[in-house]
Structures are given as C-alpha cells and as structure tokens.
Amino acid sequence: PKTLKERLSELVPEKQEEIKNIKKEHGAKSLGNVTVDMAYGGMRGIKGLIWEGSVLDPDEGIRFRGYTINECRELLPKADDGEEPLPEGLLWLLITGEIPSKEQVQALSAEFAARSAIPSFVEDLIDRCPNTLHPMSQFSLAVTALQHDSNFAKAYQTGVNKNEYWLYLYEDAMDLISKLPNVAGRIYRNVYKDGKVPPIEPDRDYSYNLAKILGYSDNKEFVELLRLYLTIHSDHEGGNVSAHTTRLVGSALSDPFLAFSAALNGLAGPLHGLANQEVVRWIFHMKDVIGESPSDETVKEYVWNTLKSGKVVPGYGHAVLRKTDPRYTAQRDFALKHLPNDPLFKLVSQLYNIVPGVLLEHGRTKNPWPNVDAHSGVLLQYYGLVEQNYYTVLFGVSRSLGVLSQLIWDRALGFPIERPKSYSSALIRKMFEGQ
Ligand code: FAM
C-alpha cells in the first residue's frame, strides 16, 4: 500500500488543478456581505477562509472531510485491542480526504514512533522550567525550540523553489506530531511526578505511547479514551483561534514549529482550549460551595451566581455551534459506557440538564449548549489524571493533527500571506457619516 507521502504527492497536482478551476469558474462570486458590526464583533460570520479538513455546521457540528464524528468512530481503523478510532487514521483522512487501511495506519504509528526523539537541549529547556510555569507555556516554548531542526526553515535558507515548499512542510509536520508525546510527557512528569520519562515503544500506536509517557498505559480504557480524545479535538474548521493562528503565522512562511507554538499560545486562553481546565475548576468550586450531591435548585443558583458575578459558564456556548457539540456527545457516550456511576460524571450530566435553561433565561449567549470542554475533564479525572492545569496540553497534542494537515495544503496550494484590510473608527464615521 501507498505511504501517506506517496498518496499526497498524487493528490497535490490534482488539487492544484481543481483550485485553479474553482477560481476560474467562481472566483468573482460573493461569499456574503461584511457589515460594520462584523468588523467590530470578532469577524463573526465573515466567510473569508478556505479550510479543507473540516467544516462546522452550526446545528450538526463538525464533519472531518465530510464524515461526522460517529462515522469516523465507525469507519476509521482501530487498534487490535480497541474500539475507538486511531488518530493516525484521522490524520490520514484530514490530509487526503480518504479513509486509510489498517496497514496504512499502522505504518503511520511506526513512523511517529521512529521520529519521536527530541533534542537534548529541548529536554534541558523543559527540565529547567519551574513547576509553577503553566504547562501550556512550557509546551509552547518547547515547540518553539524544536524549530532548531526545521526542514522547511533550512530549505528556505538554501533557496528552495516554492513549488517544493510543501515537501519540507510535510516532513516538519510529521516530525512535530511525532515529538509531541515526548514534549508533553516530559512536562507532565516534571511538573507532577518524579521527572523520569519512559521510552516510546516503536511498535505501539500514538495514543498508547502518549498514555505510556504520562504513566497510564496499563489501563486499556484510558488508552481508548486518548484515542477518542485525540481524534475529536483535532480539527474544528479554520476560524477558531488555534487553527487561524497556525494559518496566519504560517502564511508569513514561518515554519510549522513557529506557527504551531503560536497556536498553542492561543489555545491557552480560557475562552478557547483552557476552558477544559476551567470547567473542572468551576465544578470543584461548585462542590465546595454546595456539596457533592446538590439539588437541581442549588445547582441552578450556583450557575446564576456565576453569571451575576460577570463570569462565563465554562464549557457552554460557542461562536459557531448552535446545538450540543457532537464532541460533547461522543465523550458522554464514552462515559455512559465506561463510567456510568461516577459521581463527577453525574454532576456533569446534572449540569447538562440545568445550564442551558439558565443561559436561555439569562438571554445573552447565542448558544446555551455544551461544547467539547464541558466533558473532557471529568473523563481524565476518572482515570486518575487529575491535574487539570495539564488538560489543555492534551488538547494541543490533538490540535496539531488538524492544523498541520491544513498547513501542508496551504503551502502545496500556494496560499499567499494573510493580510485582511482594517479600518479605524474615524474612517468608519467618515465613510458613513461623511464627516
Ligand atoms: N456563559 C456566560 N456568558 C456567555 C457564555 C457562557 N458560557 N457564552 C457566551 N456568553 C455571553 C458572551 O460573553 C457575550 O456577552 P456580552 O454580550 O456581554 O459580550 C454574549 O453571551 C454573546 O456571546 P456569543 O455570541 O453567544 O458568544 P461568542 O461567539 O462571542 O463567544 C465563546 C463564544 C465560546 C467564547 C463563549 O460562548 C464563551 O465564553 N463560553 C465559555 C468558555 C468556553 O467554554 N470556551 C470554549 C469554546 C470551545 F468550544 C473551544 O474553543 N474549545
């Protein structure tokens, strides 16, 4: 069977041709109007990006290359000992648009393991971080430092032809994804354990190896959870902060390490990826205030108190989604199967029954339903990975799959440097009030 790079090499010229034709046929057509409100409102609703790997429907949620999460769970290859999809297969799907064979996925697992070592100076850098430095900051600086060995940056310096950019970008993307378990695992072991990092096993899958580095691979269910987790957090179309940042920074021809570390800094924000940490913190605080098994009434009051004190309810709401996030539902399915009687899961379920009603009554948020972050923490807690400040690192490992897949295509398709136009408020007034 073909390797991912071989298949991609066949697809690149086809896709280049397709885009040329799309631009010729439809290039002058409008994707919609841009209003002054949109310019002030975080560009919400402006259709101004092309993103091949996934499209987010407000009601149905994400589809990866046209496949829903449930379809991916069914169709993507599984490990011999598992039922959840292997994220290696999702990467193949995101890059090619095709469902890979089990053999092809196994080859990717082996490739990731083979490329997984990180330079000793990056190990030293991580080891020298104080435990009080947030894991996401350590993650970001380690990924920046991996830039040292960027194939793309080197090729650019030696004056490679731009038609070949994507080949080097591909190598960097594969290197970066492969090295993330060693980076993320080292941070975890340093901050929360004794600093000893076990080796990657060359014949195991990516999620198993990540679980092993973290110290949880003896639990098969946890490995399964990671397979699901890494699959569903990978990509959420192009406009979210981490995806758009990767695209934006990469468009300056900064290499993938620089682009992805910038994305991690965005993912570390509480309105984006840090929300999974915030959800657990908020639920623990709730338990402290109203007890382990509170009545619906007291939960409702706690939610109202959060809103009245001018804070967001973490894990609820979304800029695009208008229904329950299918990534939430997939994790809920997992919990119903593996931990139906867990008290924390019961609290999360109780919140699911109560929060949307409160948010609707509050009347501000456009989407009262839970997003992916409302559920991920409780699953990790159950298996003993209780350090919630670490959770966004796992989100980051997964997000690499989506954003780097697209970055390969950005260069293969010759997308230009991003540079939208901005106006000042004075100019807006001049334009519409004629002053
Ligand atoms: N709790 C309280 N208020 C909320 C809210 C929530 N969960 N979600 C939205 N609002 C407020 C929002 O702050 C805004 O208030 P103002 O009018 O006072 O400015 C108003 O409702 C309208 O906002 P919106 O249009 O519904 O949402 P946005 O598109 O501006 O923002 C989110 C989207 C996700 C940033 C927002 O819903 C939020 O802050 N949620 C909580 C944090 C969270 O869970 N983030 C994770 C998102 C996730 F899926 C991810 O990136 N991983």
UniProtKB/TrEMBL annotation:
InterPro entries: Citrate_synth-like_lrg_a-sub, Citrate_synth-like_sm_a-sub, Citrate_synthase, Citrate_synthase_AS, Citrate_synthase_euk, Citrate_synthase_sf. The active site is at residues 272, 318, 373. Keywords: Transferase. Gene3D superfamilies: Citrate Synthase, domain 1 (1.10.580.10), Cytochrome P450-Terp, domain 2 (1.10.230.10). The keyword Protease does not apply. The keyword Transferase applies. Pfam families: Citrate_synt. One of its GO terms (molecular function) is acyltransferase activity, acyl groups converted into alkyl on transfer. GO terms for cellular component: mitochondrial matrix. GO terms for biological process: carbohydrate metabolic process; citrate metabolic process; tricarboxylic acid cycle. CDD domains: ScCit1-2_like (cd06105). Belongs to the citrate synthase family. This is Citrate synthase.
